[in-house]
Amino acid sequence: MTTDTTTRTVKAIVRAPDPLTYTAVRNHLGSTANIEVATGEYRGPVDVAVFVAERMTVEVMSALRRLKDSLGIPVVLIPSEIDRAELFAAVECNVVAVLPRAAATTGRIEEAVLTAAAGGGVLPPKMLGELLRQIERIQREVLSPSGLHTSGLTPREIGVLRLMSEGLDTAEIAVKMCLSERAVKRVIFGVTRRLNLRNRPHAVAYALRSGVI
């Protein structure tokens, strides 16, 4: 299944704080070749949500969480103002692109929507730096003292999954890591249960996507 957004139409929905802003964003996106804006009572699949907000209020964050829970799609956020804590909370709600409202031209919104639909993200350099520093702080102050990685995996779990990805079986992994076979099985069971992974290949794929192996 292709993810090349240049050869297919991206379906987007728009959420805005007032009818005038909604109409303007909808019309801008609707005039582009690769984007179709879902309107009215459309019930089909949607690729991206474009969410415009003045400030990151409690109501806005609640709306983003509902959007994540109901559709689970990437979000392009266009706020007038957003601070570091709000940015991190927004990322947890599937926001993958942030365009300050003052700089949100038609071309930039279109680019952000297509990038989000293709699995990418768009952040201004300052915001990207803030996000990376926040992640580093969480790793240093919260996860590392507990023996965890940002992926949710412990060093031992990462070691087992790395050896699994190299094709080693349980007995071979046990020898390599100086563990019993039962201990290796417990590690694998713990990972799959805690992270809701189906089986060993799924666990290896999760580790690969997380960039830890």
What's the arrangement of secondary structure elements?
Blueprint: E1 10-15, H1 19-30, E2 35-37, E3 48-53, H2 58-70, E4 75-79, H3 84-91, E5 95-98, H4 106-117, H5 125-143, H6 155-165, H7 170-177, H8 181-194, H9 200-210
Parallel strand pairs: 1-2, 1-3, 3-4, 4-5
What does this structure look like?
With 213 residues, the protein is an alpha/beta fold. The protein has two domains: 10-135, Response regulator (Rossmann fold, 3-Layer(aba) Sandwich); 147-207, Winged helix-like DNA-binding domain superfamily/Winged helix DNA-binding domain (Arc Repressor Mutant, subunit A). It is built from nine helices and five strands; from the N terminus they run βαββαβαβαααααα. The protein has helices at 19-30, 58-70, 84-91, 106-117, 125-143, 155-165, 170-177, 181-194, 200-210; strands spanning 10-15, 35-37, 48-53, 75-79, 95-98. A five-stranded parallel sheet has the order 2-1-3-4-5, with helices on one face. Helix 6 crosses helix 7 (170-177), helix 6 (155-165) packs across helix 9 (200-210) and helix 7 crosses helix 8. The two termini are 25 Å apart. The model has no long low-confidence stretch (mean pLDDT 83).
The average pLDDT value, as a whole number, equals 83
Order of helices and strands: EHEEHEHEHHHHHH
How would a crystallographer describe the biggest sheet? 5 strands, parallel
- The residue fraction in helices comes out at 40-55%
What is the top-level CATH class of the largest domain? Alpha Beta
Known CATH architecture of the largest domain: 3-Layer(aba) Sandwich
For the largest sheet, list the strands in their spatial order: 2-1-3-4-5
Q: What's the overall geometry? A: elongated
